[in-house]
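fyi for ur records
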Amino acid sequence: MACQQSRYHSFSSASRLQPRPSGVTIDESFLTEDKSTQNRKLLQKRRTLTGQFSMGGHLSPWPTYTSGQTILQNRKPCSDDYRKRVGSCQQHPFRTAKPQYLEELENYLRKELLLLDLGTDSTQELRLQPYREIFEFFIEDFKTYKPLLSSIKNAYEGMLAHQREKIRALEPLKAKLVTVNEDCNERILAMRAEEKYEISLLKKEKMNLLKLIDKKNEEKISLQSEVTKLRKNLAEEYLHYLSERDACKILIADLNELRYQREDMSLAQSPGIWGEDPVKLTLALKMTRQDLTRTQMELNNMKANFGDVVPRRDFEMQEKTNKDLQEQEIQRTSTPRPDWTKCKGEGSRQGPRSCLHVGPDSSSLSPHADVVAGGPERWQMLAEGKNSDQLVDVLLEEIGSGLLREKDFFPGLGYGEAIPAFLRFDGLVENKKPSKKDVVNLLKDAWKERLAEEQKETFPDFFFNFLEHRFGPSDAMAWAYTIFENIKIFHSNEVMSQFYAVLMGKRSENVYVTQKETVAQLLKEMTNADSQNEGLLTMEQFNTVLKSTFPLKTEEQIQELMEAGGWHPSSSNADLLNYRSLFMEDEEGQSEPFVQKLWEQYMDEKDEYLQQLKQELGIELHEEVTLPKLRGGLMTIDPSLDKQTVNTYMSQAFQLPESEMPEEGDEKEEAVVEILQTALERLQVIDIRRVGPREPEPAS
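which gave:
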């Protein structure tokens, strides 16, 4: 009895679970059906499970019901009672069989899962269906735990439904993410390919530049070796010529000495001819020769010191002639002072209106309001700081602008070859009548656009294209005539006069660009010197910046710039200067006196440079000059010129493309000739300036 176990009867054989037939898949619509439909189907399945609980319907507590009977009493191993129990236990071994209902449920679950695995579209949701059914069986069978189990099931079902909705909401994002990922991958691949191509191009360019650098270095080394060789040859030739000169002097001295000795011998052999003592005559001859040598040296010194001195009588005659010529020139170029009383007003006999007013000192001229708009006040503003010649220009500009405002149309100039391309038109052209400020602003915009793009077209073509883009093809010609007539009149305005010179080919646009770059560089240097960034510099700093920026300017030129900037000889070096105000412009584009002085010095330096070139060539303006002679003259007055700059000057002077310029030493050089005056006029157009100091003349 100790080894026996009392077990509850399991379910009857009639309570077997009926598995789903093979090949029958689970209805996926179960996942979307309502609660009542699900319960009804589960009830139908449950009816197939007809088993009843044994022992009055109680569940078997397997395997816990054997726990109390597996504990044996403490017995001695050798006792009879122990042997009896062991034998009894051997006859009735422990067996803890599973309840039949549990085995049926496990078999049912195993078969259902097997059917799902054999299916083609089994998902995780379908795999949960058999577990749901088993759990519903438990809920229906365990009446006592049904509320708790139902709440547990509902909680899990709610969570699954919530997760399912979230998954459905994220499905479009997943697809979009895949699309974006593919797009990004394609773009990354394209960018890598492009970068790879650019890297290859940069590598090729780098190799080409390295080759070019190597070539230039080789040329530099070759030129340096050639210069060294030439210097060595020059030194050798110099020493050779010195030796030859000394040898010639010694030879001449020896010949003279022999001649003198021969004369002495002849005199000694015939003493009766002179009637004197030969020794006395020889001594007298020797003293005479010494006097002759001393006299010759004094004569040479006089020639060296006073070779360029003219007699006072000739000087006075030339001075008188020069004075007469100056008086004649003044009479020829000057005009008699007009009778300004003719323009006084209505009371005069000459007319009811006057154009100019004469001040009490007869030197201050003020135009009538009909000539200068704005009256005497504006005339005083225009005439301030100007000489008579400049006042005439201002007056002519005012008269011309008044006449220009009265014109409604301009006559077309036709289509002749001498007419600029932007003015070729027949018929009447409308006068747009812009203000002076509007014209200046329009020209500034044109310069900005010109400097921002590559200079592929000529400046006149660019100007007309600019007007077409700004005002349209229909009004471009009218604006071209209007702008041209305005800039032709206002010579005193910097922007208009420079634009007119470039437009008509009288000045290269590189001159304007270089001048702007020079001003910008000077402002940058002053800003760098202003360590406190206050916009102020001392006069000493101002002087230092000017000398470092313009090392070739003389002290007089530096002083002129400082005076134009506001410095006075009585000022102290510690005085502060607002350097930024030196680079400002008024509304009509007029610069401050400092920038104007820079421009005046540039033009004076160019004229002086070309005058030095003319003097170095030593020919008249109407004579022809060859290419090698002009090149040699430039290299003499400016030894720091590089080959590229010289070729640029030569190309402009002889109107030859740089690619067609003959190499130095070529026989074709001598065949290239030009009138000197024409060559100098062409050089006057471009930006030509001194690069380095001129080497001093060797001392004699």
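Residues 1-33, 49-79, 89-94, 338-364 have pLDDT under 50 and may be disordered. thats all i got for now
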